[in-house]
UniProtKB/TrEMBL annotation:
Residues annotated as signal peptide: none
Domain of life: Eukaryota
Residue segments, region Disordered: 165-196
Domain C2H2-type: 20-42
Name this polypeptide is given: C2H2-type domain-containing protein
């Protein structure tokens, strides 16, 4: 049952990483509750050494007279400042320094989860470091009268597992399979030997007809066109007519000016400027 009385205790059991700030200790605990037990072990080690010093970083009250005084100092000055998460899932609120503020927060925002069984709040509350404790329900009593067979669910009974026997059975199957494969391969080899046909030996190579000097052999060009390997292929498609480029929009004006210059004798008609000495 999730109630106001156990809300803070539940929040102290919620899973989240908390590093120990005791000097020289690099442990990381999984909840506020585990950190409390861990710090108590540090105090017990101090008691065994006969000293009661607090080794928290930046602690103002380090020296104490007894184990009880050191432990009360740890709870009031350090454990009370460790951040507590709201036990409700997806709630971003945290509480550090004043754990008592968790109660009005639950009353104002999460009142619908209070006084309800933990089984109903499964998934709504954050998980804790404690193992899940399922709620056991009593089995229904057996019926007094006879019931039909179709209403009885019979669970299947699996075969007993015998690793040694199973392994020997697998080995025997593998051995039988390998024997069958070897017998089949032997039969195929025998069939191939029966169907084999012998051919005559290949003729000997005529060494005299082979050019052993590696001198180039020049042969005349064959008159047959299909034997002339270097001859280009004939063009199968029709000839592509050359298209004249289109006249630009300024070409007409240039031609008119060019004719005027030619008539005035500024151009000799060959596309060259006349020599100034010849004009004189």
């Amino acid at each position: 049952m999730f109630t106001f009385d156990n809300a803070i205790a539940y929040a102290q059991d919620v899973l989240h990483s908390i590093a120990c700030e005791w000097r020289g200790c690099e442990a990381t605990m999984n909840s506020w509750r585990q950190l409390q037990k861990h710090l108590k072990m540090h105090c017990q080690n101090q008691h065994a050494q006969g000293t009661y010093d607090c080794h928290f970083h930046k602690c103002a009250g380090r020296i104490h007279a007894s184990f009880i005084g050191l432990w009360e100092h740890i709870k009031l000055s350090h454990l009370s400042r460790v951040t507590l998460l709201c036990p409700v899932s997806d709630c971003p609120h945290t509480f550090s320094g004043h754990h008592s503020l968790l109660m009005p927060h639950i009353c104002d925002i999460h009142m619908k989860l209070v006084d309800r069984p933990m089984a109903e709040n499964t998934g709504r509350l954050r998980p804790t470091y404690r193992p899940y404790n399922p709620v056991l329900q009593d089995l229904p009593p057996l019926p007094r009268n006879n019931i039909p067979i179709y209403m009885v669910t019979a669970l299947p009974v699996s075969k007993a597992i015998n690793p040694r026997g199973q392994r020997s059975e697998m080995l025997s199957k593998i051995t039988q399979r390998s024997k069958k494969m070897s017998r089949k391969e032997q039969e195929e080899e025998d069939e191939e030997e029966e169907d084999a046909q012998l051919f005559d030996d290949l003729p000997n190579i005529d060494m005299e007809g082979i050019n052993m000097s590696r001198a180039p052999i020049l042969q005349p060009r064959s008159e047959q066109l299909w034997l002339q390997l270097s001859r280009p292929y004939s063009i199968l498609s029709s000839r592509v007519e050359e298209t004249k480029p289109a006249v630009s929009m300024g070409y007409g004006a240039f031609w008119a000016e060019f004719k005027k210059m030619e008539e005035a004798g500024l151009i000799d008609g060959a596309g060259e400027w006349p020599d100034a000495e010849e004009d004189e």
